[in-house]
Amino acid sequence: MYGMSYNKRLIAIFLTGLLCGFPLKAKGQKVVSTRVLGIINIDETGKALAYPGSIFYDKKSRQLYVVEPGKSKVIFYTPDYFPFLAVGKGYGVKDPVDIFVDSKGNFYLISSNEQKIYVLSSALILKKVIPVKGFKGDNDFVPTHVAVNPVTGEIYVTGAGKDFVVCFDENGKFTRFLYPEMKVEDIKVGSIVSNVGVDSLGRVYLVALDFGQVYVFDKDGTFLFKFGTHGANFGQLSQPSAVTIDEENRRIYVCDPMRQAVLAYDMNGNFLFEFGGRGWSPGWFNYPTDVAVDNRGDVIVTDWLNQRIQILKPEQNKPVHVETTMPSNRAE
Which PANTHER family does this one have (predicted)? Predict the structure, then answer.
């Protein structure tokens, strides 16, 4: 699977879910209502989005960045979510699959096919290219996601099917690995890391796909705590794909494509609520893959198979009683 393109790998995972059966919500569970504030479904040329991938919201510029892997570009959206620019080959970047913007406004774009990190200035001038190399096992390491520590400048890179995160210093020199691990009968067991996030204090959040949990480390790589319960039911994580931290509202959001949901936790990892469910109407998801939060605390979700991005406001004081697995519309 590692030699496949980004979209083909996602399709393979999705088909596996179909064959195994997507978990459904149990009758009578309570979820949180969401208000749909907007839906993004066009690129900078006015054409329909085609399977949007990773997203990043920069709170300084108040801009949203959406990766469209099939077209090898990153689309820039204004604070009111109007598409105005795309970055790709014309900027010296080949086949981007993920993007991160650091505190100085530099852009870090990962290319799986090239096994490189392209670093662009805030003026979109290519500053340097960092090969994802220099560590044991780098020959078959296919980079998928990137994050930059705002305190130390350390760069974190996940790899397709890998049970660790590769760490580089700000100059691109390999420094160490970070692992999510648990003990089973005194034997250490690892999990594929599907994504990585950071907060303003430099804490690092590793999304452990197999464990259905998120592992949190401090800026020095010391393990702090983990959260999330593995499972296919309400309030559990089946195969989480992304994490984002809303420090202003003291919430952590985790995206779970297999459960078609986004789950919310407090800053200590205590479960608060979830929203979503499989569907095609606004407020529903069809394989959500990434999540971000904007300046207003609204949640932005990549709705991959619906080929759109949704901007949603969870309303914790408005629980919805689910009586069927496929209600017509949960959004207001």
Answer: E3 UBIQUITIN-PROTEIN LIGASE NHLRC1-RELATED (PTHR24104), PROTEIN LIN-41 (PTHR24104:SF25)
Lookup result for tokens 């919430």: 251
**Using CA atoms, how far apart are residues 70 and 75, in angstroms rounded to an integer?**
12
Q: Could you write out the three-class secondary structure of the chain?
A: CCCCCHHHHHHHHHHHHHHHCCCCCCCCCEEEEEEEEEEECECCCCCECCCCCCEEEECCCCEEEEEEHHHCEEEEECCCCCEEEEECHHHCCCCEEEEEECCCCCEEEEECCCCEEEEECCCCCEEEEEECCCCCCHHHCCEEEEEECCCCCCEEEEECCCCCEEEECCCCCEEEEECCEEEECCEEEECCEEEEEECCCCCEEEEECCCCEEEEECCCCCEEEEECCECCCCCCECCCCEEEEECCCCEEEEEECCCCEEEEEECCCCEEEEEECECCCCCCECCEEEEEECCCCCEEEEECCCCEEEEEEEEEEEEEECCCCCCCCCEC
* pTM for this predicted structure: 0.87
